[in-house]
Amino acid sequence: MMRITLVCCLFLMVQAVSAQVPVSQQLAQTAIHNWPDSFLIGNDKAAKWRYDQGVILKGVESVWKQTGVGKWYEYIQKSMDFFVEKDGSIKGYKPAEFNIDHINNGKLLLLIYQVTEKEKI
User: Fold this and answer.
1) Total structural domains in the chain?
2) Could you tell me the residue range of the domain that residue 97 belongs to?
3) What's the pLDDT score for residue 9?
4) Residue 93 maps to a domain
5) What φ, ψ does residue 30 adopt, rounded to 5°?
């Protein structure tokens, strides 16, 4: 009985501590931790302009808009800067594919432009 009570108390303490930081921020921090420089997923040798990256970064964008904390926006910008060359071309993006999976990433580029009003060139 004492052991069960102790386990329950520890569980409640962990819940109380983690409740102080919203789950959305915890997940965004996990993304930053797992992919600090670019999105290398699985056994890929190089990061790719992909759907899953856009979904994760759109979530980070929501956290930034809710909190106003700059590190979230900076992570989005750093992630997109990895892909956008100085001339504005995008590594790995093939416009002729007409792939709907690239839309979220494009929305993030629009966000960055809205914030900075700077062209890449």
Assistant:
1) 1
2) 22-116
3) 44
4) yes
5) -65, -40
The residue among 83, 34, 28 whose CA lies nearest residue 112 is 83
Tens of pLDDT, residues 76-96: 999 888 888 888 888 878 888
> Judging by beta carbons within 10 Å of its beta carbon (0-12, 13-18, 19+), is residue 82 exposed, middle or buried?
middle
Q: Are 93 and 102 in contact (CB under 8 A)?
A: yes
In a 13 Å sphere around the CA of 6, the CA atoms on its Cβ side amount to 3
| 57 located within any domain | yes
Query: What stretches of the chain show up as alpha helix (H) in DSSP?
Result: 2-19, 23-34, 51-67, 70-83, 103-116
Distance CA 69, CA 100 (A): 30
Q: List beta partners, residue 90.
A: 84
Residue 102 lies in a domain: yes
| Residue 18 pLDDT exceeds 50 | yes
The answer, yes or no, to whether residue 12 has pLDDT greater than 80, is no
Residue 2 counted as domain residue = no
The residue assigned the tokens 């900076």 is 74
Closest CA to 75 of 90, 86, 63, 87: 63
